[in-house]
Specification:
By secondary structure, this protein is α/β, with parallel strands linked by helices. About 40% of the residues lie in helices and about 20% in strands. The structure holds nicotinamide-adenine-dinucleotide.
Length: about 475
């Protein structure tokens, strides 16, 4: 299969490069070129804003039945096209096909969920003295500017579109320029399912130009961003000028606490699968492993042995468990994190180097005895590197887990029901998984606390985040 033509979608029209600047899209498994992506200019963005404003007038009045029909139709088309969409995602982002297929199914499920949930936008009636009432009603917040990163090229755009469309809001989506075709496929499925022009628009460009232009406009009423904390803070500043509603998903540095009563074999198996998924480029990736002293050596040995079994290579080859990293910045970052950790006394259990002559591959890596002052214990590594340290007591583990400004996901393994309850309460995170590694589901909120962000995506909470509340007092 050939990689598709890359286009923008503005004001109901698919637009090729024409007079526009372009940017090369690269296959991370080979470093070879996949295509040329058209980039918007100020005129395109102005057209998109005007179209979003017009689309809001139409879409805010659409019935839940119409929204539901479009979302269900798009979910159906995504399922029919899943094989093609997954291959595109693997070609441009690198993840193994089976992960890309699961991600595609997740978007179809999310659209199905919102196709139902949009029927459940309720208000309240406040009963006043005879002949008077007060009404509390929910309305769509308005046009959304959404920015999605490259690590889930299908899933992130799906998340940015599903809830706003269900709520009655148009979206101008700027996915990552490094993985554009997957996002194009998701928008195409919505348009093919009957979404009116201007409700979902797709722009690519120079990120700072696009975000400054869109966020300066009073037409945009909400910012939705997934990406790094640094960029998130910058965008929050831009959004503050016109006091926009915000949903910010800014990454994490997830602690994993393995108590000495855990089912160790099960924990190793689940955690290795989760750690090396998408080559560790996952905001909820388990990263700082704190393992209780009594089982520490056994855990380190078993986890490193499991990491060694992971077959790394081009994600298009079915037997590969882990693909390349998504861009050349990531293996460079891994080199710097690992050498810093080793210089602070960490022990390299396995991996620690690039792999192969072409593409952006990095070996599954396990570091043990990593001191808290090593850079990788403070900054999100966003790569296939697990760092393991011992702890003595419950209180030590909680203190270590909560010491960073991140608060997205956290994991714990214990066979004690009492400990499971206590650790669930003690961890400062938006999502906690106990004896489990899944933290995302269409019907559950996904989001962080502290500098990991605010506001949730998915679940009823994701819909609520696209609504404003109005009180109407009738005398
Ligand atoms: P980056 O911080 O430059 O970019 C992160 C994302 O933000 C990209 O999708 C990028 O296109 C977008 N972006 C950057 N500047 C922007 C701007 N001014 N306006 C709008 N969007 C902008 O870095 P990167 O090299 O792509 O990724 C590095 C780090 O970002 C990772 O180490 C990780 O910490 C974080 N990240 C987090 C997630 C997540 O799911 N939370 C996803 C991807 C990257």
């Amino acid at each position: 299969m050939d990689y598709p033509a890359l286009e923008l979608h503005i004001d109901g029209e698919w637009l090729g490069a024409g007079r526009r600047r372009t940017q090369r899209v690269v296959n991370p498994a080979t470093g070879g070129s996949l295509g040329e992506l058209p980039l918007v200019d100020a005129q395109d963005l102005e057209r998109a804003l005007q179209a979003a404003e017009r689309a809001f007038t139409r879409w805010r009045r659409s019935s839940p039945e119409e929204r539901s029909r479009v979302l269900k139709g798009a979910a159906q088309l995504i399922r029919e096209r899943a094989g093609r969409i997954a291959r595109i995602a693997t070609m441009e982002e690198g993840k193994p096909l089976r992960e890309a297929r699961a991600e595609t199914a997740m978007v179809a499920n999310l659209f199905d969920f919102y196709a139902e949930e949009c029927r459940r936008v309720y208000g309240r009636v406040l009963v006043r003295p005879t002949g008077t009432r007060s009404l509390v009603v929910k309305e769509p917040v308005g046009p959304v500017a959404a920015f999605a990163p490259w690590n889930f090229p299908v899933g992130n755009p799906g998340r940015k579109l599903g809830a706003p469309i269900a709520a009655g809001c148009p979206v101008i989506l700027k996915p990552a320029e490094e993985s554009p075709a997957s996002a194009i496929e998701i928008v195409r499925s919505l348009i093919d399912a009957g979404l009116p022009g201007g409700v979902a628009q797709l722009v690519f460009g120079v990120p700072d130009e696009v975000s400054r232009h869109l966020l300066a406009s009073p037409i945009i009423r909400k910012l939705s961003f997934t990406g790094s904390i640094a960029v998130g803070k910058h965008l929050l500043g831009l959004a503050a000028a016109t006091v926009k509603r915000t949903t910010m998903e800014l990454g994490g540095h997830a602690p994993v606490i393995v108590f000495d009563d855990a089912d160790l074999d099960r924990a190793v198996e689940m955690l290795a699968a989760a750690k090396f998924r998408n080559a560790g480029q996952v905001c909820v990736s388990p990263t700082r492993f704190y393992v209780q002293q009594g089982v520490y050596e056994r855990f380190v040995t078993a986890f490193a042995a499991r990491a060694l079994q992971i077959e790394v290579g081009d994600g298009l080859v079915e037997r590969h468990h882990m693909g390349p990293m998504a861009n050349p910045r990531r293996p460079q970052a891994m080199e710097s994190f690992v050498s810093d950790a080793l210089s602070h006394g960490a022990k390299l259990q396995t991996g620690g180097a690039r792999q192969g002559k072409e593409g952006f591959f990095w070996q599954p890596t396990v570091l043990s005895d990593v001191p808290p002052h090593a850079r990788i214990m403070r900054e999100e590594p966003f790569g296939p590197v697990a760092v393991i340290s011992p702890f003595a007591t419950f209180e030590d583990a909680v203190e270590q887990a909560n010491r960073l400004p991140y608060g997205l996901a956290a994991y714990a393994f214990t066979e004690s029901a009492k400990r499971a309850l206590l650790i669930g309460d003690a961890l400062e995170a938006g999502m906690v998984a106990i004896n489990a590694v899944m933290v995302a589901a269409p019907d559950a909120p996904f989001g962080g606390v502290k500098e990991s962000g605010h506001g949730a995506e998915d679940g009823p909470e994701g819909l609520e985040a696209c609504l404003v509340t109005k009180a109407i007092h009738q005398g």
